[in-house]
Amino acid sequence: MAYYRRFDAPPPDPKVLQELTALQQQMQARIILQKPDFELKLIAGCDSSFIGEDTILSVFVLLTYPALDVVEKVWHHGPVELPYIPGFLAFREAPNLLKAYAKLQQQPDLIMVDGHGISHPRRLGIATHLGLHLNKPTMGVAKKVLVGRYTEPAPTKGALAPLVYKDEVIANVLRTKDKVKPVFVSAGHLMDLASATAIALHCALKHKLPEPTRLADHYAAVFKKDV
Q1: Residue 166, by phi and psi: left (phi above 0), alpha (psi -120 to 50) or beta?
Q2: Which of 60, 106, 108, 174 has the most CB atoms around its CB within 10 Å?
Q3: For residue 149, how far is the Cα from the chain centroid?
Q4: What does the pLDDT read at residue 9?
Q5: What is the Cα–Cα distance from 82 to 12, expressed in whole angstroms?
Q6: In whole angstroms, what is the distance from residue 141 CA to residue 127 CA?
Q7: Where do the domains of the chain lie?
Q8: Does domain 41-224 bear CATH number 3.20.20.370?
Q9: Global pTM?
């Protein structure tokens, strides 16, 4: 997910950090990682983009699965409610994403998020955050690693390597296109890593990013022109 950060911004309020950390600890106990029990017919992709310091725009794109035809796209923009705090980006993005999600006419079986699921220092990336709020299966597909170590996968499409943090496999490092940088696929909530990886690979057609998040990113740029 794209974000805007002021490098001269003041340090976060310690009280706010304490409150957000406590919330994350409460949410951790609710995470469920499991093989999904749905029949996947509709998959949503979502992404957010920041316009200057004060405005966030969030997009959901709904596609059929496995054909990946677009059936719906919605967006919402509003004021940013929290400053940028490393490790707590989900609290900054989730409120507006939830407002965009509420505009969908059909409900997805699975949400693919441009960002991390449990591959986060406290297992609460934006994909997990959204899954807990919506009680929906979610998965994350991120462009950059947050935590963990891995060996570079082979350069061919479909190659993967585990991302390990504190002796736990928290994501797969997946090559979605020959000779391009890999993405980091993780389970969010009500999802397992193997299923998330297979779905991400199926959705990777001609580009590095799988279609749900690639299109969400694309339409975020398109809808920005209307703000």
Answers
A1: left
A2: 108
A3: 20
A4: 55
A5: 10
A6: 9
A7: 41-224
A8: no
A9: 0.92
